[in-house]
Write a structure and sequence with these properties.
By secondary structure, the chain is mainly α. The chain has helices at about 1-15, 20-25, 40-50, 50-80, 90-110, 120-130, 135-150, 155-175, 175-190, 195-200.
Length: about 220
């Protein structure tokens, strides 16, 4: 089981490492690491280049997280009972899916294609949880949308949405594994937003619709 887990994590990492934010911005003649908040995530792409490129990056980042998570189940469907089918049960494939999702979030945040720089893992994680735990992803989406509508802070909405996942996992699944992984991803997302937290506390965080100051990161 160790080898399949490592393989799922590596495949997930490589998929997550695809730097769509950087590539979309570069196609527009912009180095996203040098403008706005200097973050290759969808939020910065949208602020710098507009809604079209920003939403494109959101979709692509969500899809790579979903694909990385679904890949083990997809492989299972392909091989079925053939000669190359591994001796794994449904629970094992669930663990492989989790490994793929975690790998994708890490790949997005520390992409091997951009010098281990990357985004904060929100959209990629959302794609993964949409496959892994659709109800939790739906609850997180409601939390995100509600928080964004009230506060207009994407960073705050992202952190609260991520924080809602382990609670949803515990209440609706009672799975310690899923709850633990959800909690770990939530902590990771919050840590990745540490500079945003500092600005939120200082009252200098950029709201949606505003242009970020050039010195922000």
């Amino acid at each position: 089981m160790v080898t399949p887990l490592l393989l799922a994590a590596v495949v997930g990492y490589l998929l997550g490492s695809l730097p769509f934010g950087y590539l979309v911005a570069r196609a527009k003649g912009v180095n996203i690491f040098e403008v706005g908040s200097k973050n290759p995530g969808a939020t910065n792409v949208r602020r710098v280049l507009g809604n079209g490129p920003g939403y494109l990056v959101v979709v692509l980042d969500v899809l790579k997280g979903a694909l990385a998570t679904f890949a083990p189940w997809g492989y299972r469907l392909l091989v079925k009972d053939g000669p190359h089918a591994p001796a794994l049960d449904a629970t094992d494939y669930g663990y492989l899916a989790i490994a793929g999702m975690v790998g994708a979030v890490l790949g997005h945040s520390f992409s091997c294609f951009t010098g281990f720089r990357g985004g904060k893992g929100v959209a990629t994680g959302a794609g993964g949880f949409t496959v892994l735990f659709p109800l939790g992803a739906g609850i997180a989406l409601v939390v995100f949308a509600t928080t964004l509508a009230i506060s207009r802070y994407v960073s705050l909405a992202s952190m609260l949405a991520a924080t809602s996942l382990p609670f949803a996992a515990f209440v609706f699944t009672r799975s310690l594994v899923l709850t633990g992984v959800s909690a770990a991803v939530a902590v990771f997302v919050i840590v990745r937003h540490r500079t945003n937290i500092t600005r939120l506390l200082a009252g200098t965080e950029t709201k949606i619709g505003q242009k970020p100051a050039a010195s922000k990161s």
